[in-house]
Amino acid sequence: MENVQLPRALVNQLLRIAQASPEREVCGLIGSDAHQGFSLYPVANVAEHPQDRFIMEPQSQIDAMRTMRESGEKLFAIYHSHPHAPASPSPLDRDEAAYPDALYLIISLNTEGVLELSGFRQELSAFRPVNLLI
Fold first, then answer.
1. CA 11 → CA 96, 115, 117, 128, 131, distances in Å?
2. Which pTM value belongs to this model?
3. Which member of 62, 103, 114, 122 lies 3.0 to 4.6 Å from 77 by CB, making a disulfide possible if both were Cys?
4. CA angle 73, 13, 49 (to 5 degrees)
């Protein structure tokens, strides 16, 4: 299984963002530079039913990708939360995944007192779990 190192500060930021909107899926992008620096780009969820689905606001997503490119970063990860489901890809997550080189991070708020963070890589129409090292 692939190991992926994440800085504790980045993980804490992700968990705080998810906890701030416990009834809706939050989403965004993470850029990384050649020196393993990471930048978080929250993007508004414009889904009609944001409690169980995410759709990134298109212009904000484009702006985040432009900022990454201008800063010398590459898309490292796409993150979103599951307020009432485990930290594993839903069928909709699998169907709508469009960046095979990115890591997919899912934060679950479905556990009492413990936040769960899982990582996956897209392979064809499936997701392969990765081992997150924090």
1. 24, 11, 8, 20, 14
2. 0.93
3. 103
4. 95
